[in-house]
Write a structure and sequence with these properties.
The complex is a heterodimer.
Chain A lengths: L1 H4 L3 H13 L4 H7 L11 E4 L7 E4 L14 H35 L11 H11 L8 H17 L13 H10 L6 H11 L8 H31 L5 E5 L9 E7 L2 H11 L2 H9 L5 E6 H11 L3 E3 L4 H6 L3 E6 L7 H7 L4 E4 L10 E2 L7 H15 L14 E5 L3 H7 L2 H4 L3 H8 L5 E5 L11 H12 L2 E5 L1 H9 L7 H5 L2 H10 L4 E3 L6 H14 L11 E5 L5 H12 L3 E4 L9 H15 L3 E3 L3 H19 L12 H6 L4
Parallel strand pairs in A: 4-5, 4-7, 5-6, 7-8, 8-9, 11-12, 11-14, 12-13, 14-15, 15-16
Antiparallel strand pairs in A: 1-2, 3-10
Helix pairs in contact in A: 4-6, 4-8, 4-9, 4-24, 5-6, 5-9, 6-9, 8-9, 9-23, 9-24, 10-15, 19-26
Chain B lengths: L1 H30 L15 H7 L6 H14 L13 H22 L26 H13 L5 E6 L4 H13 L3 E5 L7 H7 L10 E5 L5 H14 L8 H11 L3 E5 L4 H11 L5 E3 L17 E2 L7 H9 L28 E6 L5 E7 L9 E5 L10 E3 L1 E8 L8 H13 L4 E4 L6 E5 H5 L5 H15 L5 E7 L2 H23 L8 E5 L11 E3 L12 H10 L7 E3 L3 E3 L4 E2 H10 L25 E6 L4 E6 L12 H8 L8 E4 L19 E3 L2 H6 L1 H10 L5 H4 L9 H11 L11
Parallel strand pairs in B: 1-2, 1-4, 2-3, 4-5, 5-6, 7-10, 8-11, 9-14, 21-23
Antiparallel strand pairs in B: 7-13, 11-14, 12-13, 15-16, 15-17, 18-19, 20-21, 20-22
Classes of the chains: A alpha/beta, B alpha/beta.
Chain lengths: 647, 735
């Protein structure tokens, strides 16, 4: 039943083609393998921390069940939850570490091909890190920034430096609760330790550590990754692009880059544009070399270079199924092993590049950051060489869609006031006056347990119709781009009158594509800037904002969710909830967290109900702020002007 | 559709920048890069460029660099589909437009003849267009923005279909105390020319300022705003963000686009939005209603002419009280500067043509009747056109809070009140008045009782807290005027003696003045009996009266507290107050010292006292003096280091009457320290200064003080001082 699997007609056709060819995809595997009701948290919890188990604890109302060691359902749920946070944090942070290492080496001039491309941002980041900049060379500043960045991972005590970017009140809450991360790696390791057999068996205590770990992701590893990538590859600015498998070019060499880190993909984009490479492709009968992306690698090169996006997570196997892909180049995260099987049915080379992520059956060309451009050229050459091996049966969907992406914090600031009046004031102002009801971050993955992209689209459509401005990253952003929400014309078509008016004044889509999932840190900074701009309370938890991951599947999503909740944001997940079997622990996350952090979790698979919950929350915050009433036009006389704050 | 505006503005900006580029290239070819370019008599170079970038353009070569930067600001054109965010781009395009136009306007000053009346405040000799305001005008007029007498300005671009509408709009703007800056045309017609055809008096004096024929003359309006921020806000050139926000929050200006709006006008409007100045149009153009860069809407269109002023004021977020004075002519501060020329005059009073005086005195509540206005003698219709009448205006007031000390304060305002009527002119005070009623006013039905109506209405309006009853009697018979005059003269003399006897030691309370905090947020004045406000407009009695009138207003009583230093003038209570009211920027100050923690200035000072180390003395320069001074800086440049609430030892802003105070820089030795002052200032204050010189036993001191006829540099000054044996040379070292 292809209709139920995905929002996209072209994907459905490819699924049918795959079926005819006997190719199994993630959709088929999901259909044939039901999720484990205990592992999923639906009807119980599963603990496999030691060989006394695994213990499968099925929860029934009124019955107390414990594991062999006596661990309660709450403890096991909390431990599993914390380990998901640790896994997600490790993923983003290992990504950030790679970037930090390359950054430092580039700053020192030790590696070719990488350089400081955004000096203004370097100086800004240096300022946050406390690196002196006056009278210092860019190189010196960059080295100092790089060293401090690398240091953040192994730091054993003190506080992560980016914590100080949060609103003052937020920092105070974290300090009071003892959840300020000390070092990024330390928090992951400690979480692993505390959740192993026989250590921390108090779910609140476990969760405080999970929070500290999540904050080490959002305000640590992820943020470092984003900021240093911006300095190395330029801070994104609004850029046009195209999306969907239709971006594959029948007459060109198609290289699909997939994964998460932009370190190599930036180089592949550069190499593919070199005249020698293009000439080589032409010599083999291709009209050129077409790079496109999947997942967050796609987002990284989209927001900086306008490189087209082939698709999101659930389209990775379908991209190969078109028969038009010469090489799929992957690095880390969200890369399915199933790709290797699909690639075998075609001429496609599946090329792994990270020493941390090999796949049996794939070609491994290790990314050498000291000579990145050579690695990139080798990959491009290999792909080009593959072009003549393409078989006749190429099935590229016609559908492709325009989009506008690149809404970094810096872009938002600039686009609302230009070079001279850049600020968030117009955003805050229009939230206060009610044209914009609030802001929702709709982010996260795809999950074949729910119809592909459908939940994203329906949620976002409902939100913008109700004047909620939507900010997106990751696969969620790609989903909505395919539905035409991320072009400026969408404002008139889909947004409520107030939001549409603002979009029109600024020239933006009602749905802002901000980058990869590691770039959720941009949303934290944007929220902080809204607080600092004024008129919307004193902390992120006062803002009329919410977060959602309607089709989540990765541990990374849980880490992101927890750092958003701990930063004061109401966060709703779709699909199902991993701790649902423990009412007490779930209540702690869904209700208890609000008292601690001002943010809380919720789970709601239905997009309409999810939208309603978000809008309710936003309206509640608006009421608390006293901005749910029509704003009076204040006319200023001289006495009013005297009362204005210092110039 | 904002996109239409953005697309047009960006197109317009490209066109304007290209055109300016071409003109600059021509100028470079003709004169070479070393050629000096400047607006006349300003220390702010090309003020928009100077304010926004910090670049001081002095030569054509400097312009080339600015032009490069301007090009860099030009965004790509807006596409019809899948457009990229254009608001930021549009604002940048607007800024690029203004940079380019400022260059174009500056190049006009290389033409012969210059197409503007440089250095004149009003049109004359058939030349209508004034071009850039010099710094004297800026300071004189800017102060009205600071003290609230002018809340902002309307920049009119284009023209209206008929002259009557033009006059009506101009009058409405004037009645709201706004300045009107005019430029550009609409279908060949220009608003200022329409006013000229209708015989409306224009110029800085009447707040109707014809800047230039071209659209690019809009830069004079925005340049004025930019200079106000630097001059009165104390914001450094190049600190573009604060300059723009200062204007958004404190200068209530807007653009009135009259007639069709083309790409270039959109580009200019986009530029103005950077300052927070919205655009209100009479034609059906797209609107930008969401708020943010401006306080409220950014572009509002299709506003009918009879609503456009009200709508503009509302869109800008401005509250202005329109004076409701029952006279048959328009009334408001904007008419204060209007002159009634002899040929426009119906009749006159005083001057050298008749005996005239005005006198205000306090009566008991039961002695007078409120709103009793009596004219004793012939009215204006009995006099042939161009003739004169004697005039005695007796204004009697009563109120439970009224004190005889306030009489001179209220009386001094008679001049302003009468002058604020359109087609009425008044100057002087007491028994030295000269007034005219214009033919227009006469035709409109203005008669002598209207003087009474004005005084009755305005005294209640402004002094309602202390005045309960106002009765006005107007005498026009020579005999009666002469009979009452000695009574008035005796009162004048008694008042003078009373004020002269007041010292700082004789009172326990000083008055603060934070009137200028609307413009200089960290500045606070302390007014003592012997040191009046630096603007010259407020003395201690004014402060006292103002506090009575408005107990929560800008003038507050401050207990001196323990005297910490009688020579420097420092008190415990004053320090504590200043610390609080300066938003903790200032911990203490000395009222009588310019070298140690001197008092700060908003920027409204009448004079600047500046140290001349070589002479062991100080110089004084008044704002009207355009020339160079021995300290190597003109008034304007000096003002930059004194204003904005900054404490700069060696420099202090003062009111001119402070020069003759016994407390004048007491800590540094007082009056004998003055080694230089402009001749005009010396002449204007000669009697007072001479009196003070006699008091200190230095009768010949005044002649030893150099002026610009003796020296404009230190090198010329020192020999002069030695030659005349100036006492400063042998006084104790100043530091």
């Amino acid at each position: 039943m292809a209709e139920a699997r995905t929002a996209s007609a072209s994907d459905q056709r490819l699924l049918e083609i795959a079926g005819e060819m006997g190719i199994t995809t993630v959709f088929d595997r999901a259909a044939s393998m039901k999720e484990c009701p205990i592992g999923s948290g639906a009807s119980g919890v599963c603990c496999k921390m030691c060989a006394m188990g695994p213990c499968r604890l099925v929860t029934r109302r009124g019955q107390k069940v414990v594991g062999v060691c006596g661990a309660s359902v709450e403890t096991i749920a909390a431990r599993n939850f914390a380990r998901m946070v640790a896994g997600g944090t490790a993923a983003h942070s290992d990504h950030g570490r790679e970037v930090s290492n390359v950054f430092l080496a580039a700053a020192k001039g030790e590696i070719a091909g990488y350089e400081i491309r955004d000096e203004a941002k370097l100086r800004m980041v240096a300022g946050v890190l406390g690196v002196p900049t006056d009278g210092r060379s860019t190189r010196d500043i960059a080295i100092a920034v790089g060293e401090m960045a690398v240091g953040e991972y192994g730091k054993q005590a003190g506080e992560l430096l980016f914590i100080r970017r949060a609103p003052q009140r937020r920092q105070e809450i974290w300090r009071r609760l003892g959840v300020v991360p000390r070092g990024i790696d330390r928090e992951v390791v400690e979480t692993m330790h505390r959740t192993t057999m026989g250590v921390d068996q108090d779910y609140e205590n476990i969760t405080f550590q999970a929070t500290r770990t999540a904050l080490a992701d959002g305000w640590g590893g992820s943020m470092l990754a984003t900021e240093l990538q911006d300095i190395l590859f330029r801070t994104p600015v609004p850029v046009r692009g195209q999306v969907n498998l239709g971006v594959l070019e029948e007459k060109q060499v198609n290289i699909v880059i997939h994964g998460h880190e932009p370190l190599l993909s930036e180089m592949i984009v550069r190499a593919a544009r070199e005249p020698e490479m293009v000439a080589l492709a032409k010599s083999l009968g291709a009209e050129g070399i077409n790079i496109s992306g999947i997942c967050c690698t796609a987002n990284e090169v989209l927001v900086r270079h306008g490189v087209p996006v082939a698709g999101n997570f659930l389209q990775q196997e379908l991209a190969i199924t078109t028969g038009a892909v010469e090489a799929m180049v992957v690095d880390v995260q969200c890369v399915m092993q199933g790709l290797a099987d699909v690639a075998q049915c075609f001429h496609t080379d599946l090329i792994t590049t990270s020493p941390r992520a090999k796949i049996a059956g794939a070609t491994h060309i290790q990314f050498n950051e000291h000579d990145a451009i050579s690695t990139a050229r080798e990959i491009v050459k290999r792909a080009v060489g593959n072009f003549p091996k393409r078989k006749g049966n190429v099935q590229i969907p016609k559908e492709k869609y325009d989009l506008v992406a690149g809404f970094s914090h810096e872009t938002i600031n600039y686009m609302l006031g230009g070079s001279f009046r850049a600020s968030y004031t117009p955003l805050n102002d229009n939230i206060i006056n009610g044209r914009i009801r609030g802001i929702a971050g709709v982010v996260g993955c795809n999950n074949p347990r729910v119809p592909h992209d459908v939940v994203h689209n329906e949620l976002v459509k409902e939100l913008i119709a109700n004047n909620v401005l939507v900010v997106q990253t990751g696969c969620a952003a790609i989903a909505c781009a395919k539905s035409g929400f991320t072009v400026p014309e969408a404002a008139r078509k889909y947004a409520g009158a107030g939001l549409a008016e603002v979009c029109e004044a600024v020239g933006i889509p009602p749905v802002l594509h901000s980058g990869a999932c590691v770039d959720n840190s941009r949303i934290l900074i944007a929220c902080t800037e809204m607080v600092k701009t004024g008129g919307l309370g004193n902390d992120i938890s006062d803002l009329p904002v919410a977060g959602a991951a309607p089709e989540w599947m990765s541990e990374k999503a849980i880490a992101i969710g927890q750092y958003f909740v701990a930063s004061g944001v109401f966060t709703v997940f779709g699909v199902h909830w991993p701790t649902a079997a423990s009412q007490e622990y779930t209540d702690y996350l869904f209700k208890g967290h609000e008292g601690l952090y001002g943010g809380k979790w919720a789970c709601e698979p239905d997009p309409a109900k999810m939208a309603a919950a978000i809008i309710d929350h936003i309206d509640g915050k608006r009421t608390a702020l006293g901005i749910n009433v029509k704003k009076e036009r204040k006319l200023f006389d001289m006495a009013d002007r005297r009362e204005l704050a210092t110039g | 559709m904002s996109r239409i505006i953005a697309a047009a503005a960006i197109r317009g900006a490209h066109k304007i920048v290209n055109r300016a580029d071409g003109k600059l290239a021509e100028a470079l070819a003709a004169y070479g890069p070393e050629k000096t370019v400047e607006f006349p008599n300003t220390g702010y170079y090309l003020p928009i460029i100077y304010g926004m970038t910090g670049v001081a353009v002095e030569t054509l070569g400097d312009m080339t660099k600015v032009m490069e930067r301007t090009r860099g600001l030009l965004p790509p054109l807006v596409t019809d589909q899948v457009w990229l965010p254009y608001l930021g781009h549009t604002l940048d395009a607007g800024m690029a437009t203004l940079f380019a136009e400022e260059i174009e306007e500056a190049l006009k000053y290389l033409q012969d003849p210059i197409p503007y009346l440089a250095n004149e405040p009003n049109p004359m000799n058939g030349q209508l267009w004034l071009g850039a305001a010099n710094d004297v005008i800026l300071r004189e007029r800017g102060i009205q923005f600071v003290d609230g007498t002018a809340p902002g300005f309307a920049a009119i671009v284009g023209a209206v279909p008929d002259n009557e509408t033009a006059v009506r709009i101009a009058r409405e703007l004037q009645q709201r105390n706004l300045y009107v800056f005019m430029c550009s045309d609409s279908g060949g017609r220009r608003f200022a020319e329409q006013l000229r055809e209708a015989d409306v008096q224009m110029g800085w004096e009447t707040r109707l300022v014809p800047f230039g024929t071209d659209l690019s003359a809009a830069v004079f309006a925005l340049g004025f705003a930019t200079r106000a921020a630097m001059s009165f806000g104390g914001i450094a050139p190049g600190d573009y963000r604060r300059i723009l926000l200062y204007n958004k929050d404190r200068v209530f200006a807007f653009v009135l686009a009259l007639g069709p709006v083309d790409d270039e006008k959109y580009a200019n409007a986009a530029g103005a939005i950077n300052w927070g100045f919205p655009c209100i149009a009479d034609t059906d153009i797209p609107e930008i209603l969401p708020t943010g860069v401006c306080t409220y809407e950014h572009v509002v269109s299709k506003v009918p002419h009879d609503q456009i002023v009200n709508r503009a004021v509302e869109v800008r977020g401005l509250k202005v009280a329109v004076s409701e004075v029952p006279v048959p002519v328009p009334f408001g501060p904007a008419f204060e500067g209007e002159v009634v020329r002899r040929e426009d005059m119906q009749l006159e009073f005083g001057g050298k043509y008749s005996t005239a005086f005005e006198f205000l005195r306090t009566r008991e509540l039961d002695e007078i009747e409120d709103h009793k206005i009596e004219v004793i003698g012939p009215d204006v219709d009995t006099v042939p056109v161009g003739g004169s009448l004697p005039l005695g205006i007796l204004c009697e007031v009563a109120g439970r809070q009224m004190q005889p000390d306030f009489e001179p304060i209220l009386e001094r305002r008679i001049h302003t009140f009468i002058n604020e009527a359109n087609s009425i002119w008044h100057m002087g005070q007491r028994d030295l008045i000269w007034a005219r009623i214009g033919k227009d006013a006469y035709k409109a039905g203005f008669r002598l009782n209207h003087f009474g109506e004005i005084l009755w209405a305005q005294l209640h309006h402004e002094f309602g807290a202390i005045v309960d009853k106002v009765q006005v009697t107007i005498y026009t018979e020579q005999e009666q005027v002469e009979k009452l005059l000695p009574v008035a003269q005796q009162a004048y003399q008694e008042r003078d003696e009373r004020v002269a006897g007041m010292t700082d030691e004789s009172v326990e309370i000083f008055y603060s003045c934070s009137l200028c905090q609307s413009f200089a947020p960290n500045h606070v004045c302390i007014i003592t009996p012997e040191r009046l406000g630096l603007c010259g407009a407020y003395n201690w009695l004014d402060g006292k009266a103002s506090y009575q009138i408005n107990p929560t207003g800008p003038n507050q009583p401050v207990e001196k507290g323990r005297c910490l230093d009688p020579l420097k003038g420092q008190w415990e209570g004053i320090n504590a107050f200043v610390y609080e009211k300066s938003h903790k920027h200032l911990e203490k100050f000395n009222a009588y010292s310019m070298m140690e923690e001197p008092m700060t200035s908003c920027g409204c000072f009448e004079c600047i006292i500046a140290l001349i180390p070589e002479a062991n003395g100080v110089m004084v320069v008044n704002r009207e003096h355009p020339g160079m001074t021995p300290c190597g800086m003109r008034f304007t440049t000096l003002a930059g280091s004194v204003g904005g609430g900054l404490q700069t030892p060696g420099f202090v802003g003062v009111g001119r009457l402070y020069l003759t105070s016994k407390k004048f820089i007491l800590a540094e030795g007082g009056l004998p320290r003055i080694v230089w002052m402009p001749k005009a200032l010396k002449d204007a204050m000669r009697d007072r200064l001479q009196k003070r010189c006699q008091e200190i036993g230095m009768e010949d001191l005044l002649d030893k003080i150099a002026d610009e006829t003796n020296a404009e540099s230190v090198d010329d000054l020192l020999p002069y001082l030695e030659q005349v044996g100036h006492p400063a040379l042998t006084m104790d070292p100043m530091f």
